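Box 3.1 A note on notation
Throughout this textbook, protein chains are presented in two layers. The first layer is the amino acid sequence; the second is a token string describing backbone geometry. Keep the layers aligned when reading.
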Amino acid sequence: MPSILQYSTQDVQPGTGSLPLQLTQGVEIFLTSIWLTATNTTNQLTFWGNVGWSIQLLNQAVTPQLTIRIRQNGSSSTDPILFQTTDSELFPGNLGFITLTNFNTSFIHTRVPDPTKIGVAVPFYLTVSYIGLGNVAISGPVNLTGQVLG
């Protein structure tokens, strides 16, 4: 059974930091980050986390699609993507009300470390972007957790 060699987590609760954070369609933004150091190429890196998000429902159809990524070394679009997942919702128009609706997207990802980064502290960045119709905000909680197993 593997041992936990390192553990790192960042957690942002609703109403703290910059939350809620309004998203701009097509713009990838940084949410949080952690650092991990693999000591051997046989180690496993395990990541898990969640992103709480909300959408303002108006009297029209909304179809937001969020893309959540873990990037290595930085949070820009040129930095390597280690993991990516999407979440979306479809709400038909003519609901006849205005309300705020909350969702939570969770993920787990395991991989082997980059052999060129053994013994080096590596930053991992959680980012999000969205496309589609609707006013989307990251409402929280936001969490990124990682561990090195060996």
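The first strand starts at residue 4 and ends at 12. The chain has a mean pLDDT of 91.
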